[in-house]
User: Fold these one by one.
Assistant:
Number 1:
Amino acid sequence: MAHIEKRDGRKKPFLVGWRDPATKKMRWKSFTHKGKADAYKDEVSTEFRKGTYVDRRPIAVKAYALNWLVRTQPTVSDAAQAYHKRAITKYIVHVKVGTHPKQV
């Protein structure tokens, strides 16, 4: 579950920490107010209990699509897997989800 640490002398002294269930790595987010840190800790803890936790960091579209393809492997034929993998690697540009490309 998530926990809160207080680090004095910092601009954002309240640190919410939790272990990502997929990667087993520690994740951290800092806050200026304890109330906001408590609310975020409760939100992450609730997502863990419900099994709905999703890492909110941006991920490259290509990486996301390839991860999706691996997860669908048990239910999709080998031919369909090969077709989709070829399309993903050939046509999808390396852009992160949650970011906006600069307009020209």
Number 2:
Amino acid sequence: MLLDINSILILLGIGLFAGVVNTLAGGGKVMDWRLHFPIQTNNRCFLVNWPSNFGTPKDIGEEVTTNMANFKSGNAYLLNTSMMHCATNYSERERIHLIASCDTSAIKNFSV
């Protein structure tokens, strides 16, 4: 597993916006999975997933059903980042996660 520099800086408390996390391994291989370890979070932080058939929103607007999850501190979460998603924080308190990017072959050895 690789830790990207943005994840390390966030863990250290350096105020860097990490809206985009590098998903390429050194050789350019796409790493579609992320392990999230919430360090500091709250009940107003959410991960939002869109349906797999979601495309570009229509100009006239449309109703889209999303799934929302609240990652709790003290747990680990495996996220398939090849699916459209985003994180939101409706709190004034920073959301801090340690994030490890993984490729598909690495997660085959994981168990619950």
Number 3:
Amino acid sequence: MSDTKISQLSQVTSVGGTELIPLITNYPANPTSSAITVANLVANLNVASVTSNGISIFDVYTPVSSSAGVAANTIFFDSNYLYVVVANNVIKRVALSAF
């Protein structure tokens, strides 16, 4: 694999926990090549979990506008609204209220 550009590597559609993802750390001051396992990367993400009881959303975020640069199929919330990104840079929201 040495001397292979990342753009020349084959793509996969699923991974386990032990595969490595290449990283450039300390960029741009002192770029260093390194890697992280998929398991460690996922453990550090702030993501939703899906169980038989429903979906838990952990991303607390308030967008600056309804067209903020956010990827489609993202869900997040703040203390007043639940936001759903229905297409790239198209955010819809619903107000939260006590019941």
Number 4:
Amino acid sequence: MTDPTQIAIGGPATPTSDSDPIKILKIKFEASIYLVVIAFLGMIVLSVIIIAGYIVMSPVPTGGSAKVIPEGLIAIGSAAVGAMAGILAPSPATKT
């Protein structure tokens, strides 16, 4: 059985700003938003890779021209990778 003076994250339940339940929920909510956004962008990148691979691997009809991956598909994949890099890159430290 756990000690009732311990909160969910394992710290002592003292009346400090660190044990404020609203602050804890806010931090968890912000972390979950980042996780959802990164997962969504990752699914976009994987979808673009799969679709481009399907286009490249599909058979060319007789007398057809070379296969070209649409520029819009490349742009969507590039934008998703750039957004992931922007979100995951650490913020620069401010010097005061």
